[in-house]
Amino acid sequence: MITSRRGFTLIELILVILVMSIVSISVASFIRFGIDIYQDTVNRDRQVGDSRFLIERLTRELREAVPNSIRVNNSCIEFVPIVVNSTYISIPVMPDSSDELLVVESTRSGGSKIIIYPLSPQEIYAPALTDAAKIFEIDSMTDEGNNVMEISFANAISFLQHSPIERYFLVDSAVSYCVEGQDIKRYGDYWPGQNQLSPPNATGVLMVKNQVNATPFEYHQDSLIRNAVVQLNLSFSYDDELLNLYHEVHIVNVP
Fold first, then answer.
1. In angstroms, rounded to a whole number, what is the distance separating the alpha carbons of residues 124 and 165?
2. Eight-state DSSP code of residue 2
3. Strands across the sheet with 241-251, in order?
4. Is the pLDDT of residue 2 over 60?
5. Which domain covers residue 200, as residue numbers?
């Protein structure tokens, strides 16, 4: 018996290879498209998360700043965080002078400088802590008992004014957030001079990348009808898109 054997012709093989190639390319493109979408989503979420972290961190710090210590210069915002604030019993006010004062002790401790009734950044960022001012270096603190603390100074000093609500602030250092290229960095553990530096002479810590607005900080001084306001106008670049975020921080602290 003669058995006929039939195989694939060359044309059939070529057609099969062509069809399989088209199917493979289609599947690979579909998979790659899904991966690109996933990567894009992850990168967007990371960018939004970083920007939210910056806004949340800066908002919290600004709300804990000494009243009237905020100032903006070009690409930097600078302020003095409160370490301790409470009320005082007695202070030396011009023309009186003394090397000590009594304050009501707070539940927290710390601070190397004391500020009373600051009405402008100039009164905080003085070129020198003189014998008659609103901010002085603390020499020592002594617990007098009965919830009273005595603060001593290296020499006799005089505050320029009483606080209407007898409030004092203890502070250590200033903080700045500055734009450098497309990065925003945080600077701390320094005490600034009368003129604001952009950035200050301190070590910066990276907070966020890809922020392209060179002047994202605006400060509006308080008035008789509203509190002071800091406006954050942040612009984040991602590929060929721009994410704009606008946020207002109301400064509720008063001197």
1. 19
2. P
3. 217-220, 228-238, 241-251
4. no
5. 44-79+173-251
